[in-house]
Amino acid sequence: MAKKDFKFLKTVYLGDLNIFKSAYFASYFIWQGMAREEFFKIVINNYNAFMKKRIKLITIEATMKFKGIAQLYDDIEITVQPKDVTFTTVDLNFTYLNKTTNKIIGEGTQRIGFTNFRDVIIPLPSELLKGGMDYLEDSWKKKAFQIYDKLNILKK
Amino acid sequence: MSELYQKKVEESIRNFLAERFNVKKNTIQLKTSLIEDLGMDSFQSVELLYELELQYKIRIPNEALKDLKKIGDIINYICNHKTL
Q: How far apart are CA A18 and CA B54, in angstroms?
């Protein structure tokens, strides 16, 4: 089965712009966070129940590469692509397409992990692994299934 | 626990690190620190411990993690807690 694509749409408003009327570089990072939260909301089946588990999301690394400008009212489509799944972390790739100019204007990455409420590192939540499976390339999907199985063994 | 068993654990750690983090096997010694020498972050260290838990069918409690900083510490822990 072909993998699903997750796309987040952001319209550029005045608050996103610098004095030269193009988007702040920092805005690109903020949009990365917005796209990620929306991705989790879609991927995790029962998001409200998941949030009550008092799990903390940790951003271990984040990068952002500027490739082009975004201006007032431009529509930016951010594609979120998970990859490199391990027991404790997952990498997310972000590609920014300015739909108004049809140009790629940025690329970013994040490596994220989770801790419990005592700040102890925990395995990737099974809800995220399970829900995110459909968005992985085949090569990563195989590894994610292995980790999902192993986590179930660890829980026993 | 036999020396042979210790060698087996050591070898499996070397194999994991070489495969997962592109670390040369011959650079991994008992005194090698996961974080300071290999540059692993705490998430990667925990990932290694989960792999070892599965492989050796032992439970490494969260409280033990802070003391398992070097390869030798991990090998000792596994050898001391493995039930045959």
A: 52
